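During the practical work, I worked with a single protein chain and the tokens that describe its fold, as given directly below.
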Amino acid sequence: MSDTGEEWQVARRRKGAARKSQSLQVPSVCSQEQLDIGKTVKRIRDTVSELRCEEFWHKWKKAGSAALSKPPVNRDNEGHADLQGSSKEGKLWQQLECVCYGLGSFSSCVSARFQLAMLLLLLEAEQIPLKDCSVYDPAFSTGERTVLSELGLTVLKENEEGKCLVTKPTLFYLMHCGKALYNNLLWKNWSVQRLPLMIIIGNSFNGMMDRTLEREFKRDYSYITQAVSVCEERQLPCPSRLIDVFSDTAVITFPTGSLNRLPQSTWAQPPEPQYQHCSDLEIIQRETQS
């Protein structure tokens, strides 16, 4: 998808839906020719160093490690995850992957740059190889995609709308993304076998519900509505000076025991979300072929 001013405005609305937008004067397009790749990479690494010295980062690190320190996942002969089958002690699941959606234009938005720096710190702390972290946002310019590649991350080429099917333990980093993206992710992995493979660092599901009319939330975001009762949320701290960057962020996990308490009918043929009643969907949908 090309980098247009319209896309930028939609992306800004999406990120602003979960928090107050910063009053930043930024260009709508940032091409590779305009963007100094080396300077931008250095700025991001400097921001990583700045965050590393923050007290709240150490609390994030501790909470993230607690969520990830689960028994490794075994698989049966058909490749399905067996979450109960291993009691071997170890740091966390082996070969953990990461997916990041919705960072925004980090070359021109201070909040997005801090969020990217935090992602890099989390990858380092959990020993996730940079190449095993996939990132995507329609707002990325050509230059920003180059910067992400220079940092070692894997830049996705297609808009998945959050519909990412997990096959192994995966950390999802979804800072201030639209509710539909979370809902799509849950729908795509709506089973007792797949949900426990996901760890989400993003907006609190309870917070989303509190900010939305209950009737509309249940109608439009049914998977988040159902997940609230069975997921575990650990609220992450946020200093007042970074309230626009990290507010209302939680580590969200899906314990197998909680999921098993739901009736089996919960998991039967879950319908794909349509959002026909949503006037402001908060995410950029993929272009459909005419």
User: Anything to note?
Assistant: The longest helix spans residues 37-52. The mean pLDDT is 81. The domain at 30-71+92-267 is CATH 3.40.50 (Rossmann fold). The chain has one domain: 30-71+92-267.
